[in-house]
Amino acid sequence: MTTATTAQTPDARLSLHLLKARQYGLLDAALNGLQQQYEAREKDEEVLAKAIAPFGNYQPALRSRLEAWVESYPQSYAAHLAMGMHLAGKAWWFRTYRLAKDVPQKNWPLVAQACEAASAHLHDAMRCAREPSLAAALRLNLNTIFSGDTWDGYLESVERCPTSLRLRQAQIDALRPEWGGSLEALHAFLKRPEHEQLSVTQRERLLATVLTCEAHYLEHFEHAAAGARQKYEESLAVQETVRGLTGLASTLGDGKTAEAEQALLRAQVLAPYDQDIRARLALSALSSLRFRRALRLLHQGRAAGSPLANDALNSMPVWLKALLYFLAIFR
Fold first, then answer.
1. Which of 166, 175, 204, 257 is most deeply packed, by most CB within 10 A?
2. Where is the DUF4034 domain positioned along the sequence (predicted)?
3. Is there a single domain that holds both residue 184 and residue 105?
């Protein structure tokens, strides 16, 4: 049984299974093996990112097992990274995806506490690997929650992780206008000299990411849905990404629910453990009056750790929830 398990290529489902089964040794060897293969340029960093993805969804039931894994392997890059991801997920659970001014004030101390704990584990993770690209990228992402400066962290980390796209994408996020950057800064970043060593495909991914950031700003801060849709389409023409697909779905208006859902389903294929996609599918179902499907997906998303699903359910008035349950039963 042990031989069969270790022979499998680690993926998200296996990672989650091994954690729940408390098979910390097998889990640690598998995920750190992917990190070592990344550092040897035998695998892309996305292989580890996908294999460890479930731990970024905030599921409190996993906390004790993650702590036990860290305690059993205190020098493990993967263990500290997974714990940091779990705590970062907790930070977003309370931060939500609302505008900062709309986040409940009582949530901010919980966000800060989770960010601090996550950063500590990510700092430990960065001491345990030669090229800790995923840990470094997540630390940059956490800094943006409180509009912290990320340049020093980025420049230091890109020296250690010269081929990391995740790290560069995290810095792009930090340069978005809504986080204190600008559209000019986003495009200037694309011209930086450290990108010259990247492949054409990798540079296209950076351009696609910048275009989705532009589209997001147009949609949510300029309220220009048509312009945002055009930018999302430009991004997808460069390279298909989860951000591009989910963004495009959000800009498709009434009468295009089927097109929006197709985009979301394609995004789900690319990122099956991104529970926020499930929540977006739920909201799409709700807009087309498929109440039973909407409620099922929202509850599944919240149970699996989606901040979007959790916030959607929490923000519903009691009367609306009751009405939806009634309609779900009788429609």
1. 175
2. 18-151
3. no
Interatomic CA distance for residues 213 and 16, integer angstroms: 31
Q: What is the CATH number of the domain that holds 56?
A: 1.25.40
- Assign 177 to helix, strand or coil: helix
| Pair of tokens at residue 217 | 């700003």
> What pLDDT does 295 receive?
87
Total number of domains constituting the chain:
3
Closest CA to 284 of 269, 268, 262: 262
Token duo for residue 196: 């010259």
210 shares its domain with 229: yes
Joined together, the tokens standing for residue 307 give: 């901040």
pTM of the model: 0.91
Q: Which domain holds residue 180?
A: 175-271
Give the span between the Cα atoms of 210 and 157, in whole angstroms: 20
Domain shared by 23 and 145, yes or no: yes
Nearest C-alpha neighbor of 165 from the set 130, 139, 115, 201: 201
- With b for 16 or more beta-carbon neighbours within 10 A and e for fewer, the 217-232 pattern comes to bbbeeeebbebbbbbb
Same domain, 205 and 262: yes
Which segments of 127-273 does DSSP mark as H helices, in order? 133-145, 151-160, 165-174, 183-189, 200-220, 225-238, 242-251, 257-270
pLDDT digits (tens, 9 = 90+) for 177-205: 998 899 999 999 999 999 999 999 999 99
**Torsion from C-alpha of 215, 217, 223, 225, nearest 10 degrees:** 10
The two tokens of residue 311 are 């916030």
